[in-house]
C-alpha cells in the first residue's frame, strides 16, 4: 500500500494496525555515531500513550519501544533504524457486533471502496494508534534539531470553544489537556468530562511554535516548507484544517496591516521582521522568525450515542460504538504534532546541508559560523537566566550554592555527547568548568 513514507533525506515508513500485533517505524537517513537510547524515545512515547488521564482513552498501553536495528553499543550505525511497539491491550471483541456496519466519521467505507477489504478492529491502519511510530521517529528528529538549538513547542490552544488567553509554556505539561493557560485548562477538562458523560466528544485547535529555525529552509515551488508542514500535519488522523501565521485571519486584513516590515537589529546587526503575520516563512522558505502553525482537531468519531448508518449491503441500521475512546484528541495530539514538525524540519535541514556542500563559497560558510555563534550567545544568555532563578530558589530555601555532584553529572553527559560530535574532550571540559564557575558566582550575588 502506497503512502506510508514521509521525507526525502530523513525518511520514515510506519507500519502496523491498531489491533494487530505491533506498530512501528523504519527510519532511514540517520547519520552514524549519534547517541540513541530507548529511554530517550520512550519519553516522547509516554506523552502520546493512552490511559494518561480521565480526558483520554482508558486503553492501557505501555507503548514500550524496542530498537530492532541500526544501533550498536548505544550509537547509530548509519543504517536504517527499526523501532517496534507491541500492542498489548487491544480488545477486538468489542468490534464484533458492528463489524458489518460503517461507523460514521471513520474510514471503513473508504478503505473497503479502495482495497475491497477493511480491518474493522479499531480502524486498523487508519487508527491514531499508527502515530506511535511517528512519535518514536520524531524523538530522533528532535534529538537532531536540539543540537542546532531548534525547539518545537505545541499545546492545546482551544477545546469546545474555550480558548487559551495566556501562553505559559511551563503550564503545558502540568494539566491533562496540555494547555498553556491554567485557568482555561481547568475549564477545558471540566467540559470534556461533561461531554464525555453525555456520550459525546469535543474538537479543538493545537498550536505549535518552532523556535530558532534558521532562515533558508524550504524549496520552491512544490516543496515549500509550509506545504511540507501542511502535508505532514494533515496526515495525522482527525486533523481537518491547517494554517500558518495569521492564517485565515489574513482574509480580514489589509496588505498594509499584514505585511511584515523588515528592520535591522542595532546590537546584533541581524535583519528580522517587526511582526510575524507570515508565520516565519516567505516564498516557501524560512526567514529566521518563529514558525507558527495551527491545526484543527475534529471531535473523535467513536461515541456511544446512537447514530444512523448502513451496513455493507446498504441496509439502514443504528449504531452505538462501545469501547475505550478519547473524548477529545487534543491532549494526545500535541506530541504527535511536535513529532511531525520535527520530521519535516530535520529533513529540510539535511536538504539544505546537501545544497551547501555542493560548492559552498567561503563567505557563506562564514555566515553559517556567525549564525552558530549567535546561537551560542543566545543559549548562554538563556542558561544564565535559568542559573539566576536557581540561585533565587536556593537562597529562599537556604540551600548550599555549590552542587558538585550535579556539575560532574552534567560534565559526564556532555563529554559523552562530545564523542558523538567529534569534539575535543578537553575543550568541552574547559568550557563547562568555566560555565560552572560563572554559575556559582551568579548564584552567590542574587
Describe, in plain words, how this protein is organized in 3D.
With 446 residues, the protein is an alpha+beta fold. The chain has 2 domains: 5-245 and 280-353, Chorismate synthase AroC (Chorismate synthase, AroC fold, 4-Layer Sandwich), CATH 3.60.150; 359-445, Chorismate mutase (Chorismate Mutase Domain, subunit A). The chain is 37% helix and 18% strand. The chain has 10 helices and 18 strands. The strands form 6 sheets. It has a 5-stranded antiparallel sheet, covered by helices on one side. It has a 5-stranded antiparallel sheet with strand order 9-8-10-16-11. Helix 3 (131-146) packs across helix 7 (330-357) and helix 5 (225-234) packs antiparallel against helix 7 (330-357). The model has no long low-confidence stretch (mean pLDDT 92).
Structural topology:
Blueprint: E1 5-6, E2 11-16, E3 22-28, H1 38-48, E4 65-69, E5 71-72, E6 75-76, E7 81-86, H2 108-115, H3 131-146, E8 151-159, E9 162-163, H4 182-197, E10 204-211, H5 225-234, E11 239-244, H6 255-258, E12 262-264, E13 271-273, E14 281-282, E15 285-286, E16 291-297, E17 307-310, E18 316-319, H7 330-357, H8 362-396, H9 404-420, H10 425-445
Antiparallel strand pairs: 1-2, 2-3, 3-7, 4-7, 5-6, 8-9, 8-10, 10-16, 11-16, 12-13, 14-15, 17-18
